[in-house]
Amino acid sequence: MFPTEFLKSVPKTPGVYMMLDKQSRVLYVGKAKNLKNRLTSYTRFSGTDHNKTTVMLAKVHKVDTLLTNTEKEALLLEASLIKKHKPKYNILLRDDKNYPLIKVTVQDKWPRVHMTRRRKKDGAKYFGPYSSSSSMWATLRLLANMFPLRKCKGNKVRPRKRPCLNLQMGKCLGPCVGLADSAIYMDQVNKVIMVLEGKNRSLVKELKQDMKKAADNLLFERAAELRDQIAALSKTLEKQIIASSHFKNQDVFGYTKQGTSVAIALIFVREGLITGSRNFFLSNPVETDTTVLSQALSQYYDGKNTPAKEILLPFHVEDTTILTEYFSEL
Fold it and tell me: Which among 119, 132, 90, 107 has a CA at the least distance from the CA of 306?
């Protein structure tokens, strides 16, 4: 049963609380601007015997509190503890390990672009996850045809006496045989990143300027290459769904309930174009809708996923000011 004696010593300060059962397993992690008021509210909770919150509170044997200096610290600590303990009664967004990512190894001297299913802290740039593997492979094919980066595996390029077929086909700049210029190669890498970030319109504009410069300098072969890249990108833009004419970068969240289950949808809009989506399904969360969405936001944007300049929500959430401050630092 939810203990009450300890409430006398709980301060009215920001912090995080952990509800534990008799085996000291963490049942639930929560945060509060005022710990005393928040924990006291559980003593006044009344629900049916089968209500999930009622069942949870009946299992609580002990409550640990961790004091923080600010609400923002409480927000970050809560997200960290949920990730660590994976409490039964907290919402847990399904991770992205089953979805493919596109990895750009910008930490390498000669970066390459390839598919991966695991995000590592190795200095590389990761894009995705892609809920559709066919969409991901189509993107990789487009990038391979447009930008002549190396396809060989490994962090380091092994010197070769003879170039591979990709160089002869114009699909690689040939760093393995010493033919690639580092500045030109990295310029191609940066353009790949622009495509993956959804900045196709900006890239088309930049490529048109480069094509004009090449033509003015009588570099007609280079101008023709740029023309082909512009054509490929323009064709891709025609297929993309226009979400808005304002060309902003937005993450758009949707929230719906059916019975006790919750579904959260996320649509990625980059430069006014829909570039991807994610869906999360939560079974019978114990908290209110505003708290559930707030926890989902802090879990999703955990440093691995960078928020867009604008985040559109279906309703006001708890800790809007704190979340805004936190996201601005990512």
Answer: 119
Read off φ and ψ for residue 231, nearest 5 degrees: -65, -40
Tell me what the pLDDT averaged over the chain comes to: 86
- CA–CA separation, 279 vs 265, rounded Å? 5
Six-digit token string for 212: 């004009």
Closest CA to 295 of 14, 50, 48, 78: 78
Q: Evaluate whether 301 touches 327 at the Cβ level (below 8 Å).
A: yes
| 55 Cβ contact partners less than 8 Å away, ≥ 6 residues apart | none
- Quote the tokens at residue 156: 């380091």
pTM of the model: 0.65
HEC profile of the chain: CCCCHHHHHCCCCCEEEEEECCCCCEEEEEEECCHHHHHHHHHCCCCCCCCHHHHHHHHCCEEEEEECCCHHHHHHHHHHHHHHHCCCCCCCCCCCCCCCEEEECCCCCCCCEEEECCCCCCCCEEECCCCCHHHHHHHHHHHHHHCCCCCCCCCCCCCCCCCCHHHHCCCCCCHHHCCCCHHHHHHHHHHHHHHHCCCHHHHHHHHHHHHHHHHHCCCHHHHHHHHHHHHHHHHHHHHCCECCCCCCCEEEEEEEEECCEEEEEEEEEECCEEEEEEEEEEECCCCCHHHHHHHHHHHHCCCCCCCCCEEECCCCCCCHHHHHHHHHCC
pLDDT tens figures, 231-261: 877 765 555 555 566 778 899 999 999 888 8
The Cα–Cα gap between 80 and 85 comes to 9
**pLDDT (0 to 100) of residue 238:** 53
| Token pair listed for 51 | 């209500």
Q: What pLDDT is stored for residue 185 in this prediction? A: 95
Sheet holding 15-20, edge to edge: 26-32, 15-20, 62-67
Q: Give the Cβ contact number of residue 214 at 10 Å.
A: 18
What average pLDDT does the segment 293-312 reach? 88
Structural tokens at position 172: 């690689």
Name the residue with higher pLDDT: 82 or 127: 82
